[in-house]
Amino acid sequence: xxxxxxxxxxxxxxxxxxxxxxxxxxxxxxxxxxxxxDENLYALGSISGHNIAIVCLPAGRIGNNPAASVATQMRATxxxxxxxxxxxxxxxxxxxxxxxxxxxxxxxxxxGKHGGVVQYDSGKATASGFERTGxxxxxxxxxxxxxxxxxxxxxRGRSKLCEHxxxxxxxxxx
Length: 174
Fold this sequence. Notes:
Layout: E1 6-10, H1 13-22, E2 25-27, E3 42-47, E4 50-56, H2 64-77, E5 83-86, E6 123-126, E7 129-132, H3 141-155, H4 161-172
Parallel strand pairs: 1-4, 1-5
Antiparallel strand pairs: 2-3, 3-4, 6-7
């Protein structure tokens, strides 16, 4: 439990499968302690030397409340988590500036006083469009630095994204 510093929450099994395919190395399951009161099942592994605990919401449970429950149980069990990520299929990315389509990979980034993620139940529809009524916190500085590095690698033609996509395609269609 002490070796994992990144918590990764997925909403759907397809997201969990993709997350597991991204791991450089998979680790054996955590030993379960019935006294812990943690009902999560973890997929464990590492990416670039960072140990990651991945959990998926229970089948049929979606939304903020189940996600909060899963994340709370994860933090209680995997005590050294420094960063929590929610990675998955976006519900919608409306934009007049960017052509974003189903299947595209989108990484949010802070802009101005808002974090990169927009929670649409923290807003309201107005005659002139969507108006935010709240905002989620921005990611920590160190994660924003990683996003900058990933983007720089992509600009230099050193992205591993195509490699990961090919790996996922080959594993699902042998």
